[in-house]
Known about the structure:
Structural class of chain B: mainly beta
Helix content of chain A: under 10%
Oligomer: heterodimer
Largest interface: A-B, 23 and 27 residues
Shape of chain B: globular
Strand content of chain B: over 45%
Number of strands of chain A: 12
Amino acid sequence: AQSVAQPEDQVNVAEGNPLTVKCTYSVSGNPYLFWYVQYPNRGLQFLLKYITGDNLVKGSYGFEAEFNKSQTSFHLKKPSALVSDSALYFCAVRASGGSYIPTFGRGTSLIVHP
Amino acid sequence: NAGVTQTPKFQVLKTGQSMTLQCAQDMNHEYMSWYRQDPGMGLRLIHYSVGAGITDQGEVPNGYNVSRSTTEDFPLRLLSAAPSQTSVYFCASSYSSGGVYEQFFGPGTRLTVL
Lengths: 114, 114
């Protein structure tokens, strides 16, 4: 079985400050990890993924995520938040070699204050 | 490419009515899925398909039917709508790139059942 936990329902950050959205996972075998973003009244958009290799993954819109195998975490980060980053963020995991269907977390609402 | 399209964008039904949510993709993706999104619940998988003529149940299939007669289309049928089916429904398509299945989401259908 695979699962994802996003421990924070909401993250508040001031514009210009660094942001972190947390994600931990559980999966049998090697994980494939994903972050998606959902803007209001829109579908989910792919941000970045970790498959293998470098633990620091860079994605769209200046976001990056760090894979930590020992802590089974895949936190999303950005050095300087923008008001336009305010959205709902989903972490997802699937096992390499397993079903193509990922398991999604419950989502974290990021609010960036001007 | 239009990507993944969903119709209608909004729908209001009365309890007991039936309807079909349409989903189409023009990327020749083999895999398609239906999710529902409810506050605090994240995305839950309803049904999925790994190719034309092949469908399977996800986490919350009760009250929904699907079929996949073509690669492009994956309609979701509500047989007898219930207020518990009030939700936002997302269709997604996916393809394998080296064993990694990145998902592409449609804009969603917001359904209210009275």
